[in-house]
């Protein structure tokens, strides 16, 4: 959707170079780049990964910021991106679940010997870490929320990872309802 808010963005390309551009519709612009209808520079270096987006307001502000970023050396652009990533990691998960839904990141499973247990092993319990949780179920009699028994940061036990899969920022998460969780792990 086009709007009056302009953004500067940085893409990491297949040849490990950065491309800096501006847009007032980041989703549309990324789709154009991905199908080879963006810049010639990007087209010759697909695939791409969006690494940085900064909302700046007007077209003239975006053009000024783009010029500044384009003058940066590769290492300086990398530091700018890392600074943004650190700031993002300090923030909460960007999706706030509704009702009794819970977003979980699967923990690596290891046997006592230290070997990883493959995901194809069926019938075994899996552990995960809650990254975000909704407010709870609604009590139909009172209309108030019944709070969830888990919160962000809790380790939980699940029978299988059959929840809805959600891929974000190169990580895989799963969405469950509270009733699908076997229990909370106490450490």
TrEMBL record:
Coiled coil: none annotated. GO terms for molecular function: ATP binding; protein folding chaperone. This is GIY-YIG domain-containing protein. It comes from marine sediment metagenome. The keyword Chaperone applies. Belongs to the GroES chaperonin family. The keyword Chaperone applies. Residues 4-81 form the GIY-YIG domain. PANTHER family: UPF0213 PROTEIN YHBQ. Keywords: Chaperone. The lineage of its organism: unclassified sequences, metagenomes, ecological metagenomes. InterPro entries: Chaperonin_GroES, Chaperonin_GroES_sf, GIY-YIG_endonuc, GIY-YIG_endonuc_sf, GroES-like_sf, UPF0213_domain.
């Amino acid at each position: 959707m086009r709007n009056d808010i302009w953004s500067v963005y940085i893409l990491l390309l297949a040849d490990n170079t950065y491309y800096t551009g501006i847009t007032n519709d980041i989703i549309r612009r990324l789709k154009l780049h991905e199908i080879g209808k963006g810049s010639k520079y990007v087209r010759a270096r697909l695939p791409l990964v969006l690494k940085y987006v900064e909302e700046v307001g007007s077209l003239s502000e975006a053009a000024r910021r783009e010029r500044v970023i384009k003058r940066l050396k590769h290492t300086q652009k990398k530091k700018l991106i890392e600074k943004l990533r650190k700031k993002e990691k300090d923030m909460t998960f960007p999706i706030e679940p509704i009702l009794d839904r819970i977003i979980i990141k699967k923990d690596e499973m290891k046997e006592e010997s230290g070997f990883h247990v493959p995901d194809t092993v069926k019938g075994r319990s899996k552990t995960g870490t809650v990254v975000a949780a909704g407010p709870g179920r609604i009590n139909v009699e009172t209309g108030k929320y019944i709070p969830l028994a888990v919160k962000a940061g809790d380790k939980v036990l699940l029978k299988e990872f059959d929840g809805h899969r959600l891929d974000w920022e190169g990580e895989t998460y799963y969405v469950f309802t509270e009733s699908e969780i076997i229990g909370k792990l106490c450490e």
